[in-house]
Write a structure and sequence with these properties.
The protein contains 13 helices and five strands. It has 323 residues and is mainly alpha-helical. Bound molecules: tryptophan.
Amino acid sequence: MRTLTGIQPSGTLHLGNYLGAMRPAIEAQARGNCFYFIADYHSMTSLFDPVERRKNTLNVALDWLACGLDPATSVFWRQSDVPEVTELMWLIGSLTPMGLLERAHSFKDKTAKGISPNFGLFAYPVLMAADILLYDTHVVPVGRDQQQHLEMTRDIAIKFNQTYGETFVVPEADIRDELAVVPGLDGQKMSKSYGNTIDLFGDEKATRKKIMGIVMDSRTPAEPKPDADQNLAIQLMKLVAAPELAADYESRLRAGGLGYGDLKKALFEQYWAFLAPYRARRAELAANLDYVEKVLRDGAEKARATASVVLKRARQACGIAAA
Ligand code: TRP
């Protein structure tokens, strides 16, 4: 059973990204047959700076490898290193109804926000379907925001199979509703669009400043806090510290005597220690970019071994190559 997912190279990652998407994907490697790629073609629909794209793509590769993506176990590549996907996009796009694409929420949301729509943005779901179908994918773990794209992928696969004969595996979505919502610095869900994130690999000073800046109420340190479990620093500590330690801080806060400043300092230390091994690994990788490039190229070669077989099958099915 093959699991595949695409990762948008869209800038700095935060704790919510790590706990919500990366860690589950990294843990899933134990089951084998994981295909993960960096969706740099997709980034072209909304980012028009080549230097920035290259930088973002490299950063995502560093982040994922640092956090435990294992290129010996999983196939990890840069989407554009297997350009066959764009050909498949044409084959399937030619039987994708306009109406299907016009109903796409993400397209409608983006244009409603004033992003001027280009062909790529409109065709985004077709490229995404090609990503999935090109690798005979069975399962696609994605967030709820991608559910409709997966339904479109299934519709496209079924239509192609009906029109040209059995060609594609019809994939299943594995929708991840986050098990625990990771709260951001203001207590709302941690999200880049709310500007309340804590970066995974931010520098020490900036990270400390962000955590020390969490706003709390005006109760004195001595006052008992019966609502200690609602405290944002306690909630975050539970996500990054050993459970006994977080429980100890919670009971000290509840009893009274623990000041908010000391609590936030402890949170910073736990946060910093939680990421220490990944930070060290990331620094090693960043000092060895030839290795990272080689990992991506080797990954692309493995991905292509599957892609070329499936593309050939699709070409033959629709009559643009000798059967
Ligand atoms: N659209 C996905 C997102 O925004 C990224 C993506 C591109 C993807 N191609 C994919 C995800 C294929 C799963 C499968 O997160």
